[in-house]
Amino acid sequence: MRQVAILGIGQTVIDEHWDKSLRDLTVEAALAALQDAGRETAGGVFVGNMMSGIINDQNNLGPLVADWTGLRGGDAVKIDAACGSGAAALRSGLMAVASGELDSALVIGVEKMTDRPMREVTAALATAADADYEVEMGVSFVGLNALIMRRYMYEYGWQHEDFAPFAINAHANALHNPYARLHQKITVEDFEKSVMVATPINLLDASPIGDGAAALYLVPADSLRGGTRILVAASAAATDTIGGHDRPDMLFLTAAYKSCREAYRQAGVGPEDIDVFELHDAFTIMSALSLEACGFAERGRGVRLGLDGEIGPTGRIPITTRGGLKARGHPVGATGVYQVVEVVQQLRGECGPTQVPDARVGMAQNIGGSGATIITHILKRE
Amino acid sequence: MRQVAILGIGQTVIDEHWDKSLRDLTVEAALAALQDAGRETAGGVFVGNMMSGIINDQNNLGPLVADWTGLRGGDAVKIDAACGSGAAALRSGLMAVASGELDSALVIGVEKMTDRPMREVTAALATAADADYEVEMGVSFVGLNALIMRRYMYEYGWQHEDFAPFAINAHANALHNPYARLHQKITVEDFEKSVMVATPINLLDASPIGDGAAALYLVPADSLRGGTRILVAASAAATDTIGGHDRPDMLFLTAAYKSCREAYRQAGVGPEDIDVFELHDAFTIMSALSLEACGFAERGRGVRLGLDGEIGPTGRIPITTRGGLKARGHPVGATGVYQVVEVVQQLRGECGPTQVPDARVGMAQNIGGSGATIITHILKRE
Question: Is residue B1 scored above 90 in pLDDT?
Answer without folding.
Answer: no
